[in-house]
Amino acid sequence: MARTHREKETPWFDVGGPHEPDGLGVWLRRFLESLQVRNFSARTVDHREKDIGDFIVWLADRGVERIDQVTKPIIERYQKQLFQHRKKNGKPLTFRTQHDRLVQVRLFFRWLSRQNAILANPAADIELPKVERRIPGDVLSANEIDKVLEQPDLTDAMGLRDRVMMEVLYSTGIRRTELAHLSIRDVDFERRTVFVRQGKGRRDRLVPIGERALEWVQRYLDEARPELVMPPDPSHLFLSSTGDPLAPDRLTRIVRSHIERANVGKSGSCHLFRHAMATAMLDNGADIRHIQEILGHAELSTTQIYTRVSIATLQRVHAATHPAEGASRRTERVVSEPGTPAQLLEALAAEMGEEAS
């Protein structure tokens, strides 16, 4: 099979030699092909090639080029190297990054073991670093969102496009890649929904979109998109100045530039709108399982991170139960809020997904 241009530039490709049956490069190629056969996304395949390829290059630098030469102590040395590694800015790799890279190595050797390519799995008992449970650092308030939305120049076709993209991000909470892949037919004005095709995990889902966002989409379709589209029409909803579909990285740069110009003191890009939507809806009483469906999270635990950002319920419980609030104010607050303090605490515990101690 002829090697592609990319393969010629891949450092791991020849590790062990192209004709060595136990060569690490040979087996990584087979592993990546198996992922493609099983319909893994191109992004997943690329991610695993990068992380496992880096590991193989690290092994080759130490004279290890065959799968049967890899031992548990060698993988532990690699884990220590990840911990000690410093990036160009002098900062270490986060424990999340270290964890993710080691997970890819473990997946590779588990697959090798299932193929009976190795007698024992050297990565089976590797203990992964504990990953911190972080909450989104910068969450935009409704006022800050409005400031960002005011930045694009609405007299310009691309400015109007940018405003509409951010309106859709904020209303639906979809990811930047999902936004980039939207087609015109995916927006149902009558049902007020957006159809997300093959989102993360290759899952389709239907999400609601607000009336305000739909009005902006209609304005974009009437005024801006006809100026941007060039035959043949790619049918994507949002287009570049050359009439092509927008790449996710380009979306990131566009949204980040508007956030910076808004001068709200917070940094980020498309995901900030997703965080803002989820947090605001939880603050306003939305059920976390409904948020899970809208965001397209496979696991509820992923959505529960937003309960740690949503402060409204915590504030109600604090006002209703803290002795410094004063008896009269507590009484007033308890009467005005649905449920007793005990019920509020129970609801909070349920939201936070915590077990009773």
Question: What does this entry look like structurally?
Answer:
The structure is a single chain. With 357 residues, the chain is mainly alpha-helical. It has three domains: 5-114, no CATH class; 142-285, Intergrase catalytic core (hpI Integrase, Chain A, Orthogonal Bundle), CATH 1.10.443; 311-351, no CATH class. The chain is built from 16 helices and three strands. A three-stranded antiparallel β-sheet has the order 1-2-3. A hairpin with a 3-residue loop joins strand 2 and strand 3. Helix 2 (24-37) runs antiparallel to helix 3 (42-60), helix 3 (42-60) crosses helix 5 and helix 14 crosses helix 15 (327-336). The chain is globular, with a radius of gyration of 25 Å.
Low-confidence runs of at least 5 consecutive residues: 1-8, 333-345, 351-357
Oligomer category: single chain
CATH architecture group name of the largest domain: Orthogonal Bundle
Radius of gyration, in angstroms, nearest whole number: 25 Å
Number of domains: 3
CATH H level, superfamily name of the largest domain: Intergrase catalytic core
Give the number of DSSP strands: 3
Secondary-structure element string:
HHHHHHHHEEEHHHHHHHH
* Total helical segments: 16
Spatial order of strands in the largest sheet? 1-2-3
Q: How many angstroms separate the termini?
A: 60 Å
Query: What is CATH's topology name of the largest domain?
Result: hpI Integrase, Chain A
Percent of residues in helical segments?
40-55%
Inertia-based shape: globular
Main CATH class of the largest domain: Mainly Alpha
Average pLDDT, all residues: 84
Estimated share of beta-strand residues = under 5%
Q: Major beta sheet, specifics?
A: 3 strands, antiparallel
The structural class is mainly alpha
